[in-house]
From TrEMBL:
The keyword Transcription regulation applies. Keywords: Sigma factor, Transcription, Transcription regulation. Belongs to the sigma-70 factor family. ECF subfamily. Residues 24-90 form the RNA polymerase sigma-70 region domain. The keyword Magnesium does not apply. InterPro entries: RNA_pol_sigma-70-like, RNA_pol_sigma-70_dom, RNA_pol_sigma70_r2, RNA_pol_sigma70_r4_t2, RNA_pol_sigma_r2, RNA_pol_sigma_r3/r4-like, WH-like_DNA-bd_sf. NCBIfam families: sigma70-ECF. It comes from Archangium minus. PANTHER family: ECF SIGMA FACTOR, RNA POLYMERASE ECF-TYPE SIGMA FACTO. It comes from the Bacteria. Residues 121-172 form the RNA polymerase sigma factor 70 region 4 type domain. This is Sigma-70 family RNA polymerase sigma factor.
Length: 183
């Protein structure tokens, strides 16, 4: 085979389709914002979380091997950021009470709409849950993800997701936050 060039191409599994980060963000930004709002229950905090998650994703975009996994990858980054945020907020609220700094800030005016008292009560009950239970519940019942997608987004096992969902449902039922047909 003298005079022929040999090209060493990687196997088909190793060849990844290139990531068009701008297209991925454009296609997923609205869903990410909706998810963030359901996780933290505040519009401004949700926008901040999405922006920081997208900044993290941009820095790590070269680690994504398969562009088809992009939406789940972005959700995982956002959920991870939101869980850290929820933990810090819970610690701050406890410190505020201990130090008697006053009540937590009131919800934004956009959250006040007719018939919202039940929704706000549900939100308060959901915020009392541990971060992983609240996240699993939000992803399952508010975002409509299946157990495998939740496990992937939270980076935990499917069985652990089921445990978090069960415990979240039990606590929400005990707090009378779920009325009528419950999931």
């Amino acid at each position: 085979m003298k005079g022929t060039a040999v090209i060493n191409e990687p196997p088909m599994e190793e060849r990844a389709t290139p990531l068009d980060f701008d297209a991925l963000v454009e296609g997923e930004q609205a869903a990410l914002l909706r998810l963030a709002r359901r996780l933290v229950w505040d519009g401004e905090e949700a926008r901040d979380l999405v922006q920081s998650a997208l900044a993290d994703a941009y820095e790590k975009r070269h680690t994504l091997r398969d562009s088809k996994a992009g939406p789940a990858w972005l959700r995982r980054i956002l959920v991870s950021r939101a869980m850290g945020h929820l933990r810090r907020r819970r610690v701050w609220n406890v410190l505020r009470e201990v130090l008697e700094l006053g009540p937590a800030p009131q919800p934004s005016p956009e959250e006040h709409f007719a018939g919202a008292e039940r929704w706000r009560a549900f939100g308060r009950a959901l915020r009392t849950l541990p971060a992983q239970q609240a996240t699993a519940f939000s992803l399952r019942y508010l975002e409509g993800l299946d157990l495998d997608a939740i496990a992937d987004a939270m980076n935990i096992g499917r069985g652990t997701v089921r445990i978090h969902l069960y415990r979240a449902l039990q606590k929400l039922k005990a707090a009378d936050a779920l009325q009528g047909d419950t999931p």
